[in-house]
Amino acid sequence: MNFISKTYHTKLGKPLLIREATSADAKQLLALKLEYLKNTSTIPLFDYEYSNTIKEESELIQNLHQQSNSLLLVAESDGDIIGNIDLTGSWRKKMQHTAMIGMGIHTQWQNQGIGTLLIQNVLEWSKENEILKVLWLEVYATNLPGISLYKKMGFKESGIIENFFLEKEKYIDKITMIINL
Questions:
Q1: pLDDT tens per residue, range 39-85
Q2: What is the per-residue pLDDT for 71?
């Protein structure tokens, strides 16, 4: 099922295109991920742990594109990829109706409504998808803006694992959130 690209404007009036990622985006997408992983306190991965090459990033894009229950969208402004959201559907037959969301926004573009637009587009695509019934994500309990955004978009907390993340020598609970389509 193809995604139809859409244009918007950020809160600051900058043009924004949300579209499905292609293999040609691999270099920019990899650079974006390394940028927002560098100083994050809300994603459980260090930039040096994300070891994809451009070729591997291209293969990841292709793999998600080929799965009928998966989607990888990018947010682009003036030709620069500034955000991404991936919906990774389960390959297991008993769970193929489920997909996990992961998202990141360039640090200079955060708090401009881009995350809301990315999630909104994933939800719209997922509701049209005949396979998907449940979307889920994991979030640091300390990520109050993220939790607020997910609740605003209709996600509900479905579980907590205490002391799951270790961030700057402090343990943080993990919250799992879901939405039924």
A1: 888 889 888 899 999 999 999 999 999 999 999 999 999 999 999 99
A2: 98
Any residues with CB less than 8 A from the CB of 114 and at least 6 apart, and which?
Answer: 10, 16, 75, 82, 83, 105
Angle between helices 144-152 and 114-128 (to 10 degrees): 40
Residues 67 and 89 sit within 8 Å (Cβ to Cβ)? yes
Q: Name, in order, each residue with C-beta under 8 angstroms of 115's C-beta and a sequence gap of 6 or more.
A: 83, 103, 105, 149
Q: What is the pLDDT of residue 39?
A: 81
Q: What six digits make up the tokens of 57?
A: 């990033």
Residue with tokens 């695509």: 125
- pLDDT recorded at residue 81: 98
Residues 51-78 as b/e (b if ≥16 CB within 10 A, e otherwise) read: eeeeeebbebbeebbebebbbbbbbbbe
E strands within the chain?
A: 6-9, 15-20, 71-77, 80-89, 98-105, 134-140, 156-167, 170-180
Q: Which helix (H) or strand (E) holds 119?
A: helix 114-128
